[in-house]
Design goal:
Strand content: 25-35%
CATH class: Alpha Beta
Largest sheet: 7 strands, mixed
Shape: globular
Strand order of the largest sheet: 3-2-1-4-5-9-8
Number of strands: 9
Structural class: alpha/beta
Mean pLDDT: 97
Distance between the termini: 29 Å
Helix content: 25-40%
Radius of gyration: 16 Å
Length: 211
Amino acid sequence: MDQQKVIACYNATANEYAASLFDELSAKPLDRLLLKQFGAENAAKGRMIDLGCGPGQTTRFLWEHGVAEIIGTDIASGMIERARQLNPDIPFQTADMLNLDFAAGSFASAIAFYAIVHFNTAQLKTAFSEISRVLVNGGQLLLSFHIGDEIIHRDELFGINVDIDFCFFRTAEVLALLKEAGFRLIDAIERYPYENVEHQSKRAYLWVQRG
């Protein structure tokens, strides 16, 4: 996927995205359970990075549940600006998952909730390699994504004209790529979509560890 199209899409829709989705976790009990548990097991280990944080809803949820050392990152500066407005007590910065501007071993853990949705397979390999690089040995990652084989094109999002593709992946495919990047599986969960809450696709959650 063309990263410039991703940036343009989310810069254009940052305000509408935040208005629509900043409170989305209130209607997603499994997401809340997983985030709480991941935070509880990793908060004391060191700094956590939220990759593809958007307006910061997952970042804030983790911060409110005890993850004091956390930073939210997103490729779109418009999203980061909105995240800072909504969460002035939490640090945010722009960052590209395909080329993270952090030293090796900078973080003890990471989350990436639906942050891989605009990557093709080659980009996914690069992203997982970068995440592995910036994590300490033994660092954990909680990843979520849409399950499937399709690519959905949108030329409109939240009433705004865009040019963006959403990529779905099979769980086994993503697991194989994570293993190539040096991760081992801790847990894997698939769930059906919440009706009248979100796009009606199955979701996968992978909890993995580096090394």
